[in-house]
Amino acid sequence: MERSAVSSQPSAGEDFHRVALGGRNFAYLEVSPPHPRANVLFLAWLGGSRLGWEGVVAEVGKEYRALAPDHRDTGDSDPFEDAFTLADLADDAAEFLRAVDAAPAFVVGLSMGGMVAQHLALRHPELVRGLVLVSTTPGGADSTPATERGRAALFLPADMEARERAQQALTLMTHDGFTEANPGMLELAARHAERHPMSEGSFKRQFRAIRAHDTTPGLARLTVPTLVLHGERDDLIPLPNAERLAAGISGADLQVYPGTGHMPHLERPQEFLADLRGFLQEQTN
């Protein structure tokens, strides 16, 4: 990819940065102290954007240079109508890290973002200092499929309004009773969907890329420190997928959150941050 200059400050009226990679603009969030301990890259999930990582980035950015880009065709990044693979998204992430001078980085990816993180570490190992793989899978023929509840989160009616779609998806992806007990999360999901609505075409392109994902043959080549975080009651990517992922990466640690669904950073925010900080501190001391 051709690289061009980074926008060092958000444009007037915007709360995000832009960087041009290969002639396309990518939007990203950045929070950093004056002297960060390391770089940390956050990669979003199917249908998600940088907004979903805002709270975590704000906390991690107190000690580290924390960056959360919008994938191509997502959020405030440029539209992209051609088919792509998760390896393409990993190459985008690699060019992003180089362009903003943030390599090597610890890479935190949730669900699809965790899949992209695996491809990034396999394709560009020199850019990755460590992996935190959240609610994700190596894919392949041995995958444990989503439950009926998890599939329902993926296949909501196409004509559903963006706010309602986001709220229904969050309810189905988190553990039973979470959104009833945390109505503020429903409103937050609705606001994110209103700001970054995802077209049916964009969703299908991401979904097709996920269906082709399989890093199983390459897991043994991942030698960076790796932490796998997963919810015990994840209906979208059931726990056996994380167990297989952790078993395939030499030295990987697996942390399972009891009674937790697909979004542990929302369902178990204090524990999630403690585990993430602990991993980063261990690797940077």
Strands, helices and their partners?
Layout: E1 3-6, E2 17-21, E3 24-31, E4 39-43, H1 54-60, E5 65-69, H2 86-99, E6 105-110, H3 112-123, E7 128-134, H4 148-154, H5 162-173, H6 178-181, H7 183-195, H8 200-211, E8 226-231, H9 239-248, E9 253-257, H10 264-267, H11 269-284
Parallel strand pairs: 4-5, 4-6, 6-7, 7-8, 8-9
Antiparallel strand pairs: 1-2, 2-3, 3-5
Helix pairs in contact: 2-3, 4-5, 5-7
Can you describe this structure?
The chain is of the alpha/beta class. The protein is 39% helix and 18% strand. A nine-stranded mixed β-sheet has the order 1-2-3-5-4-6-7-8-9, sandwiched between helices. α4 runs antiparallel to α5 (162-173).
Structure described in brief:
By secondary structure, the protein is an alpha/beta fold.
Give the topology string: H per helix, E per strand: EEEEHEHEHEHHHHHEHEHH
Low-confidence stretches: 1-5
Question: Which homologous superfamily in CATH is the superfamily?
Answer: Alpha/Beta hydrolase fold, catalytic domain
Structural class: alpha/beta
N-C termini distance:
34 Å
**Class in CATH?**
Alpha Beta
Main sheet specs: 9 strands, mixed
Q: Estimate the global geometry from the Cα principal axes.
A: globular
Number of strands: 9
- Within the largest sheet, what's the order of strands? 1-2-3-5-4-6-7-8-9
Q: Mean pLDDT, rounded to whole units?
A: 94
Strand-residue proportion? 15-25%
Gyration radius from CA atoms, angstroms: 17 Å
Count of helical regions: 11
CATH fold title: Rossmann fold
Count of domain modules: 1
InterPro entries: AB_hydrolase, AB_hydrolase_1, AB_hydrolase_fold, Epox_hydrolase-like
Keywords: Hydrolase, Plasmid
Organism: Deinococcus aetherius
Pfam families: Abhydrolase_1 (PF00561)
